User: Fold this.
Amino acid sequence: LAEDPVAAYKWFKQSADAGNARSMAYVGSILADGELDSVPKNPVYGMGLLFRAASLGSDLAALLLSLYFNNGSHGLPRDLTQASFWYRQVAPSKLKDDLFFFKDDHVAKRVLE
Assistant:
């Protein structure tokens, strides 16, 4: 099968809307970063999904929030306390499964190595 990021986004969005935390993390990161040209960037909604996903146990969402707080990016202030909190929520053994879908992303490459 050929890769189709737009079709994948639609499936992840449907799953996120149904309450799946992993899908919320994927959709949230896409909306927060504006990664797909065909999907309008929506950082407020995207960050809301990331917080919800992290609260539901998504390791990927927790890692992203940790990075965003550490860097003071994506509309979040630089807050090392929050960065540390979200980093401690991450279970590294499960994270590789989530990061597979971001295998071309520079952050994922560092974690997967």
